[in-house]
Write a structure and sequence with these properties.
Largest sheet: 5 strands, antiparallel
Mean pLDDT: 88
Number of helices: 17
Helix content: 40-55%
Order of helices and strands: HHHHHHHHHEHHEHHEHEHEEEHH
Shape: globular
Distance between the termini: 34 Å
Low-confidence stretches: 1-7, 13-33, 83-87
Number of strands: 7
Radius of gyration: 21 Å
Strand content: 5-15%
């Protein structure tokens, strides 16, 4: 079942916070009075009813709560996130691309790809998600598992929920993490970013509960130690986000200086991430784009009847991109054009 747009948006915001990414709906940081440990424990006790409604055994919540204490460092990190105005110019994509589609990431991605071909081919057959896209997410999120974070997820999420400024975001994630423990996930595995992302794919607890998959057939979905499970879970995430089998995410294009951008402007109002989607053109077929002089830089597997939008991340006169609905599936993982473009470009480089 598809996750409601608002819930999915809240999950994305948590990922942005963990990555230090500014988002359009981020609230400016506010000063909050210091927490009192008694109040923290009382808050955790108040969650018993919600936990029970989720099928969590009361003794699980009580046992976890007894090990937790308020973490002021997490609140400092949260409050340091910029709320920022978005009235200024958007920075160029090229510097970001150079940092996130590096020769090292490409080379290591090719090694991951070739050493796991049998498993990746099987997952692609089952899900339709390309092998290189799974590998690119793995590389982008945790540099192929080399750093996944070292914060105690339960302590961080409980602290952020108790602090209250984003309780509607963090309380459900804390309870989802408790549910993971109640389901048998060892507490020791629940480490990650200060904002709740964990494992090789950097899933939030609620995302883990929704899409985590057993890729190696051992009956577990161990996204912390099993590359097969992590990659299968990434693929399942994209299936859930609407990935279309056999369709590329997009293609780099040259855009003629004569293109009338007002005639191709997007007239729709996005329901989330407006800063991202407002930069798109309207949807047209690849054939229509070609008739306007917008041509792929290299031969493309996209057919002329494929619908695509135009994005010019560095402005007129620079490389543009025609993007399909599968690009939007990447945006579902992290609603940032820079993120989604770099994942797509890394996937293309790894798979070339």
């Amino acid at each position: 079942m598809k996750t409601p747009i608002r819930l999915r948006s809240l999950q994305l915001l948590l990922i942005f916070l963990a990555l230090g990414v500014v988002t359009p709906d981020s609230a400016p940081a506010q000063t909050v009075p210091p927490a009192n440990e008694n109040g923290f424990q009382a808050y955790l006790a108040s969650l018993r009813g919600k936990a029970t409604a989720m099928g969590i055994r009361p003794q699980t919540l009580d046992a976890i709560a007894a090990t937790l204490s308020y973490n002021p460092r997490v609140i400092q990190l949260d409050q340091a996130q910029p709320g920022g105005s978005f009235d200024g110019p958007i920075p160029p994509f090229e510097p970001y691309r150079l940092k996130h589609v590096t020769p090292s990431l490409i080379a290591r991605g090719r090694t991951e790809w070739t050493s796991n071909r049998g498993m990746l081919e099987r997952i692609e057959r089952e899900t339709g998600v390309p092998e290189a896209v799974m590998v690119a997410i793995y590389g982008h999120e945790t540099s192929y598992g080399t750093f996944t974070g070292d914060f105690d997820l339960l302590r961080s999420l409980a602290t952020l929920a108790y602090e209250g400024r984003r309780r509607d975001l963090f309380e459900p994630e804390f309870l989802a993490a408790v549910k993971m423990v109640d389901n048998g996930i060892p507490r020791s595995k629940l480490v990650g970013s200060w904002a709740g992302a964990t494992g090789y794919p950097q899933f939030l607890p609620s995302v883990y509960l929704r899409v985590a998959a057993d890729g190696d057939g051992d009956g577990k979905a161990d996204i912390w130690a099993s590359e097969a499970d992590a990659l299968a879970s990434i693929a399942r995430y994209f299936v859930d986000a609407g990935w279309r089998k056999g369709q590329a995410w997009g293609v780099a294009v040259s855009v003629p200086s004569t293109l009338d951008r007002t005639a191709i402007a997007n007239r729709t109002t996005p329901t989330r991430c407006p800063r991202v989607f407002e930069r798109f053109s309207r949807w047209m077929t690849l054939g229509e784009w070609k008739r306007l002089g917008v041509a792929p830089v290299v031969p493309s597997a996209l057919s002329d009847d494929t619908l695509a939008v135009l994005l010019e991340p560095d402005g007129p006169g620079k490389t543009g991109y025609l993007l399909t609905s599968n690009y939007q599936a990447i945006l579902d993982y992290n609603c940032s054009n820079f993120y989604a473009l770099s994942v797509g470009l890394l996937a293309d480089a790894v798979g070339s």
